[in-house]
Amino acid sequence: MALAHTPDSLRIGADRELQQALRACWQRDESFSHTPDQWLAEQFSSLIPHLIQDQRFQPDWEPLLKDAQEAEAQGHKTSVIGPLTYLWFAQAEQGLDKLDLLERLLPAYGEIFGRLAARGVEWVQIDEPILTLDLPLEWRNAFERAYHILQYSPLKKLVATYRGDLKDNLGVAALLPVTGLHIDSVSVPEQLGPVFDRLPTYKVLSLGSASDQVELVQEARARFGDNLLLACA
């Protein structure tokens, strides 16, 4: 999701550096007093998108398709930063509500999913780590609005969180119209029980690094059967 050559247009869909920064943000010491957006702004300010009132978005095709090809060769899912996480961490000019740009951003994601599907990609992982934050109501509502629009795009979609507990966002995450949900099963194993109860069993449940949680894995397998994945792609 690097800046384009024109200031009013942002290219989205492929930015490994920003994804790595977000993952590092969620792995930071929990005693650190800064919020994730404050930490990211301090540590990786050059990676943060800057939004203006007349913002336009377009897919960044060359690195995006290269990343998809590499992911396929390695047996991984193609992954992109989700639209809500992208907007949450972006910096907006004064007076601009970032959520006002959501409907302008989503068509770019639709284009990305359509082109990936045309190239034979089956799955896309959509990273939405902000689902583990204390989100305002308007942002939780925006998740429902965004993914109901994106559900008509091709590809199987796995919404992924990083480290942390879904808490009050569990209901939103569980009912998004996507194929599956990836959650952290290591740092917050106690969230698995509520997830088992809320996530429909026709959806895929992906658990990362759960090999040492035998009983939880057995329960998940009993509930989700072949819809259980035990590795984060």
From TrEMBL:
Name listed for the protein in its UniProt record: 5-methyltetrahydropteroyltriglutamate--homocysteine methyltransferase
| Keyword Protease annotated | no
Organismal lineage: Bacteria, Pseudomonadati, Pseudomonadota, Gammaproteobacteria, Pseudomonadales
Q: What is its EC number?
A: 2.1.1.14
Q: GO biological process: what's one of them?
A: amino acid biosynthetic process
Q: Please indicate which superkingdom the organism of origin belongs to.
A: Bacteria
Q: What GO annotations for molecular function exist for this entry? A: 5-methyltetrahydropteroyltriglutamate-homocysteine S-methyltransferase activity; zinc ion binding
Sorted alphabetically, the keyword list is: Methyltransferase, Transferase
What are the Cobalamin-independent methionine synthase MetE N-terminal domain coordinates in residue numbering?
Answer: 39-208
Which Pfam family is an annotated match for this chain, by its short name? Meth_synt_1
